[in-house]
Write a structure and sequence with these properties.
156 residues; alpha+beta; Immunoglobulin-like; 4-stranded mixed sheet; 4-stranded antiparallel sheet; elongated
Length: 156
C-alpha cells in the first residue's frame, strides 16, 4: 500500500512541475529594454533625436531622456507598450504617442531607438540586441600589482 501511495505522490509532484513549466511559458520571460534617444542613420536618411522624451511603461515613468541618453525598462512577456511624451525643441510643446510591439523571444536585452520608432521605420531599423562592450573575463586577483594590504612600510 505504501509503495502505491509513494508512486502516486511522485507522479503528482511531476505533474505539478509540468503544470508550473507550462504556466511560465504562457506568462513569458523577462526582457530588459534599453531606450536610446540617439540620432539614427537608416538608408541614407538621418533621424534626429528629440530634445527630451519621457517614457512611460506599464503606467510608470521608466526614463526621462535628453539627446544622446539611454534609459531602461524591464518587461515581462513578449508584448511591450510604451507611451512617449516628446518635446522636439527646448521650450516646445509635448506630443504624446503610444507604441506597441512584440519583443523577440531570443533576445534578453533589446535596444530600441526612439527616433526610429517615432519616424515609423521598420522594426529592424530601430530594434537590435544589446551587446556588452565589456568582456566577461574573470579578474585574477593574485596577479594584480600593488601594495599588500598589511604592508606597513619600511619603518617597521
Amino acid at each position: 500500500m505504501s509503495n502505491k501511495r509513494r508512486l502516486l505522490f511522485r507522479i503528482l509532484a511531476v505533474a505539478v512541475l509540468i503544470l508550473i513549466a507550462a504556466l511560465m511559458m504562457l506568462v513569458g520571460r523577462g526582457h530588459t529594454v534599453y531606450l536610446d534617444n540617439k540620432t539614427l542613420e537608416y538608408n541614407g536618411s538621418t533621424y534626429e533625436a528629440p530634445y527630451k522624451v519621457t517614457v512611460t511603461v506599464n503606467g510608470e515613468q521608466a526614463a526621462k531622456l535628453y539627446d544622446k541618453e539611454r534609459g531602461s525598462a524591464t518587461n515581462i512577456g513578449q508584448n511591450f507598450e510604451m507611451t512617449l511624451e516628446v518635446m522636439r525643441e527646448k521650450g516646445g510643446s509635448e506630443v504624446v504617442s503610444t507604441h506597441r510591439f512584440k519583443l523577440p523571444y531570443s533576445m534578453d536585452g533589446v535596444v530600441v531607438n526612439i527616433p526610429g520608432v517615432l519616424a515609423g521605420l521598420p522594426e529592424d531599423a530601430w530594434m537590435s540586441e544589446f551587446v556588452s562592450l565589456v568582456p566577461d573575463e574573470p579578474v585574477d586577483e593574485e596577479s594584480v600589482p600593488g601594495i599588500d594590504e598589511f604592508d606597513l612600510g619600511e619603518d617597521f
